[in-house]
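User: Okay, second chain of the day. Same drill as before: sequence in, structure tokens out.
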Amino acid sequence: MNARRRRPAWLPVLAMLLILPVLLYLGTWQLDRAAQKQAMFDRFDDPAAMAELSLVLDEAPEANRYRQVRASGRYWPNRQFLQEGMTHDGRPGLHVLSPFQLDNRRWVIVNRGWIPETRTRDTAPPLPLDDSRRTLAGRVVPYPQPGLRLAPTAGEGWPRRVLYPTPAELGEALGVALAPHMVWLDAGADDGFMREWTPAEFGPARHIGYAVQWFGLAVTLVLIYIIMKFRKRQ
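Assistant: Same drill. Structure tokens below.
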């Protein structure tokens, strides 16, 4: 008597119906991410995509990441932030975040670049700036997100040190409503510090590689199914 249990004939079919669509979806999703990344990288170097910042503030920052913009308005010189934990060529430093009021009265934060860390945290570095009206150029970016967000620590005095602030936290410290868009000040613009902006994300090639892997698994699954069906008939 053969006591071995037979595998249900419908089990391979069910596996195909459940797993194959998932693999195809993941591969297609990676191709879509690759296209999005390519569009972001194209915007980074495309001066033809430049727009007035005031016209994109009602759009999501992610939808305009790295888009080149112009902005006219005034800085708030005596209310600036120093973002800690920023490095350049392996050296510890700070990013200078300066509030900027557009001509339409809306507020954004302009990242004016990197400066070396001060000797002590209580040392206030020189941040020369005036409130004269000007037009600046830069790129739109979302606020950087840490892997783990800690509870914000209340700072005192100005310039005020921050770690990974949100627009709401900076706006509360300033007493104004900030747009969720940050602007990287253009490397050639006045009133800036060290600025060597590059896209923070890996390029579209990695997403294409992931897509090839998912589609490869889908093809492998189909081949295994065909082989199993052929052996069963034999």
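The beta strands are 51-52, 68-75, 81-88, 91-102, 107-116, 134-142, 160-162, 178-185.

User: Thanks, on to the next one.
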